[in-house]
Amino acid sequence: MSARVLADFEGRWRIARRIMPSGQPEAAFDGEGVFARSDEGLAYHESGQLQIPGQTAMQSERRYVWDKDLNVFFQDGRFFHSVPNAGGETEHWCDPDHYYVTYLFEKWPRWRVTWRVLGPRKDYLMITDYSHKGSSA
Question: What is the set of domains in the chain, with CATH numbers?
């Protein structure tokens, strides 16, 4: 498998996400992520429906910026984490919680990101599957 480069991510992606909080029912997110060219690299925007058991589905979205080295930044410019270009593990510390993440690219252009979040405020597993939908144009 070849290493991923920033241009590989450009375009539209279908997103299917499962959120499994410890000791609570599983939630689901279904939506779309778009990586579009920007001055910094690729601007990422995802939007879709978040379904939490026992609640009305709600609109959910998030935004990040990815640079040419696959560093991910929050929309306000703060560093978030680096994506291993061949897939693999990385992490993010958000005091007092620790975010462990694994990127899997073996089935490209389908890929998976798994987050395991542990700390006094958070305890959950989140698995996100991406499948390519085509160009962002």
Answer: 6-134 (2.40.128.20)
